[in-house]
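Table S2 (continued). Query chain:
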Amino acid sequence: MVKRWIPKIFMLFLVIIAVLLMERGKPIVALLVLIIPTLLFFIWFLPIGPWLTARGASVKINFMDLVEMRFRRTNPSKVVHSLIKAQEAGLKVTVVQLESHCLAGGNIDQVVEALIMAREANIPLNWEYATAFDFMGGGRLDSADSINKALTEIKEENKKRQAQLEQENKERQAQLEQEDKEGQEQLEQEDLQKMYIWKGKSKIKP
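Corresponding output:
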């Protein structure tokens, strides 16, 4: 919260200094006081460095995408660094995936490292599992053995969930069949009652 107010306080301080310089008859110095920090801020804000790094590594990334990352409070340098590492390793990872995981609070560098490690060890680790393990923590992405163990655990858990869903579906199907049978019997009973009533009325002489 305090960091958000620092640039505003700094700009207010510069404006006050510029006003004082204007009152003292130094308009040129006052303009320099305002213009130079503003230019430095825009140079810092515009992700020129990450864009040049991506271009130097032959990684295609839109400059405006990097600018938008600034507005979304994502670190463009971190995203570009992870993207370069992923593409050099032959991984099919997109900027959107990296930024989304970064915005969610994940460690994209660790995820990319795990994917590279898994690929070298012939472990079928995809982006979804890698990001899930990253959120779980507990050293699940520290080594090939830990990745294998995590994959085994999650596959077993998926099998249990699948078996549970199948059992629930069977029970639900049996319940629906029972309800349908009871409803059919009730309709047949109502039809018989109507028939008895009709026969009773037909025997009554006018």
